[in-house]
Amino acid sequence: MPEPVISIRNLNTAFKLRSGWFPAVRDVSLDVERNETLCLVGESGCGKSITAMSAMGLMRTVKGCRVTGEVWFEDLDLTTLDERAMRTIRGNRLAMIFQEPMTSLNPVLPIGQQVGEPLMFHRGMTRHEADEEAVRLLELVKIPDARRRLNQYPHQFSGGMRQRVMIAMALACGPDVLFADEPTTALDVTIQSQVLALLNEIREEHAFALVLITHDMGVVATIADRVAVMYAGEIVELAKTSDLFKSPRHPYTEALLRAIPRSDQDSKDLRAIEGQVPPIYDMPPACRFAPRCHLREEICGQDHPELLTRRGGKAHEARCHVRNRISRRSAA
Amino acid sequence: MLRYTLKRLGSTLPTLIAVLTVIFVIIRIAPGDPAIAILGDNASQQAIDALRERLGLNEPLLEQYWYFLSDALTGNLGNSLVSGRSVLHEVLEVLPHTLDLTVAAIVIGVILGIPVGILAAVYRNGPVDYVARIGSLLGLSFPSFYTAILLILAFAIHFPWFPVISNANLSDPGDRLYNLVLPALSLGLIMVAYVARTTRASMIEALGADYIRTARAKGAPAFVIVARHGFRNAIIPIITIIGLYLGLLIGNSVIIEIVFNRPGLGKLIVGALEQRDYTMLQGLMVIYAFFIVLTNLVTDLAYGMSDPRVKYQ
C-alpha cells in the first residue's frame, strides 16, 4: 500500500454537555492516499462532518469541544501544532468545501476576492496577482465569462455556480487533501451530477486526495474508490467501493443499501432502518448498532466490537461481532 | 450604485412633502385660533381679524396648503412672531451649536462603541464582555440630563476643568471644542452604549455564520476573520441603530442644551413654546423633519455602500 497523504489515528472528538464529556467521533482511524476518493457515509449526525472538521483543526476553537488522537500529514502530527502553524496548512495543503454554498460564501465580498484570498494568505500574492489567478481558477471550475464575474457577489450566482466558486477557492493553493462536506446536497439533481463530475475530473487531473462526505449512496457509487461507513460516531465498515456494494459486511451498511430506491424494484422492497440513531448522551454500551440490528446476539450487548478485516481476505473491515465471527470461521 | 442613489434621492421629495403635509394638518386641527392664541384672550375682534388676514388664515385651506408647501420647500419659513426676524435666519444662527453637539456625540459613539462591541463579541463571556455589557446597560439606564449633571458636578465644579455654561464663540475652534466636551460626552456616552450593544449582537451573529467557517478553512488570520469577514457583514444593523439614534439625538440635544444653557435648536424650541411663537414652532418642525429625512437618506445610502445585495432589491 502506498504511503497515505493523510493519516488519521484514533481520532476522538468529544463535546461537553451538562453531565460530562460525550464523544461525537470515537476512535476513527483513516488513511487516505494521494489520487484517491474516499467517501465518508452515514446518517446525519453520525460524525462525518465532525471528523473532517477535526482533521482540519477547525474544532479546536469550538468551546466545549475536545479533540484527541493524531492526524499525520507529511511527518507532522497536526494535532500538536499551534493555531498559527495550523493556519499555514489550512486552506493551503488541506482544504475544505461545505454543504451550503449560499451561506458559506461571504455575501458582501466579490467572489474574486474570496477565491483569491488563500493565495494572499499562503502565497503572499498581491490583490492584483490573486485576481489574475482567481480568473484561472474560475475557468478551471468551468465558470463561463470568469473575468467579468470576478467582481460579482455570491447572490448573483446560481447554486451550482456558487459551489463551483467554493471548489475554486479550495483549490487555490493546490491542496494535497480536499475535504468536501456534502458538496452537492443543497443542489438540484442535474446540477449535483455536474458538480460531482467536475470534482472527479479535477481530482484526477491534480492528483490530490478527496475525502467526500455524503449520505447519498448514489454519490458513493459514482465517485468513490473506497468507502468508510460511519454510524453513531464510529467507522463500522471500511472497504473498496465495489466490495462494499457487492458484499456489505456490516448490517448497518446492508440496511443503508436496502434503503436506496430502485426503479426496477417494487417500492414495497424499500425498507427504512428500524429505530433511531441513539443520542450522544445515551449510547448503547457495546455495539452501537445492536438495538436496531436484526443479527443481534447476546455478545452484541456486552462487548464493544472492533473494526476487523477478514483474516486472509481483502482489506474489508467491519465492526460486527456476528459477521467477523462467521467470516473467520469460514476463512479458517 | 448610481441608479440606487438616484432612486433613493427621488423618493426623498415625496417623503418630505408627506411630512410637511402632516405638520400642516396637525397645526390646522389643533384646537383654538392661532390669532387668539397669539394676541391673548383680551384682544379686540378687530385686532384678531387683522392678524388672521395677515397670517393668511382667511384664505381657502387648499391655498394655505399650497403656500405652506412651496414656502417650506424654498426655505421660506416665515418670521418669528416674537422677534419679527426670519425663522430660517434664527435657526441658521444656532444650528452650528446643535450640529456640533450631535456630530460629536455620534463620533464618540462610533469610535468607542464599535471597538467595545467587537471585543465583547470576540471574547464573548470573558471579562471584557462583562464589563462592556454592564457598562452599556448603565449607559442606557441613565437619562442624558442626569449624566450631564453628574459630569458638570465632577468635571466643571469638583475639578473645574470645563465650563458649567457652555456658550462657545463659534469663530474660535479651540473654544468651540472646549465648550463641547461635557455636553458631547453626556450625549455620546449613551450613544456608546447603544452602538456597543448593537455591534456586539450583530458581530456575534456574523461570527457564527458559515462564511466565517469558510474563512477559517482558508487559513485566514484572526484579524482578517473579524474585520473583513465578520465586521463587514455586521455593519448594517450598526448603521441602522446610528441612523435611528441620530433622530433621537436631535431630540435629546434639547435637554442637554437646557442643562448646559447652550444655544441651539433645543433652546430655540423651548423658547418658542413658552412664548407661543407659532411660526417659529412650525418652522422648527419643518427643520427637524428635514433633518430626519436627510438622516434616513444617508442611512439608506450607507446600506447601499456596505451591502451589495441592497441595490438589487
Layout of SSEs?
The complex is a heterodimer of chains A (332) and B (313).
Chain A: E1 4-17, E2 20-33, E3 37-41, H1 48-55, E4 65-73, E5 76-77, H2 83-89, E6 94-97, H3 101-104, H4 111-122, H5 127-140, H6 146-149, H7 159-171, E7 177-181, H8 189-206, E8 209-214, H9 217-223, E9 226-231, E10 234-240, H10 241-246, H11 251-258, E11 308-309, E12 317-318, H12 321-331
Parallel strand pairs in A: 3-8, 3-9, 6-7, 7-8
Antiparallel strand pairs in A: 1-2, 1-4, 4-5, 9-10, 10-12, 11-12
Helix pairs in contact in A: 4-5, 4-7, 5-7, 7-8
Chain B: H1 2-10, H2 12-29, H3 34-39, H4 45-55, H5 61-73, H6 87-122, H7 127-141, H8 144-158, H9 173-207, H10 210-217, H11 222-259, H12 265-274, H13 278-306
Helix pairs in contact in B: 1-13, 2-5, 2-13, 6-7, 6-9, 6-11, 7-9, 8-9, 8-11, 9-11, 10-11, 11-12, 11-13, 12-13
Distance between the termini of chain B: 12 Å
Sheet with the most strands of chain A? Answer: 8 strands, mixed
Sequence stretches where pLDDT stays below 50 over 5 or more residues of chain B: none
Mind telling me which CATH architecture of the domain at 93-257 in chain B this is?
Orthogonal Bundle
* CATH level-1 class of the domain at 93-257 in chain B: Mainly Alpha
Task: Provide the β-strand percentage band of chain A.
Answer: 15-25%
Say what the CATH topology of the domain at 93-257 in chain B is. Answer: MetI-like fold
Could you describe the 3D structure shown?
- Chain A is of the alpha/beta class and 332 residues long.
- In chain A, 34% of the residues lie in helices and 23% in strands.
- Chain A folds into 2 domains: 4-93 and 176-273, Rossmann fold (3-Layer(aba) Sandwich), CATH 3.40.50.300; 105-172, no CATH class.
- Chain A has 12 helices and 12 strands.
- An 8-stranded mixed sheet of chain A has the order 6-7-8-3-9-10-12-11, with helices on both faces. In chain A, strands 2-1-4-5 form a 4-stranded antiparallel sheet.
- In chain A, α8 links the parallel β7 (177-181) and β8.
- Chain A starts with a strand and ends with a helix.
- Chain B is mostly helical and 313 residues long.
- Chain B is built from 13 helices and no strands.
- In chain B, α8 packs across α11.
- The longest helix of chain B has 38 residues, at 222-259.
- Chain B is globular and about 85 Å long.
- At the A-B interface, α2, α4 and α7 of A face α10 and α11 of B.
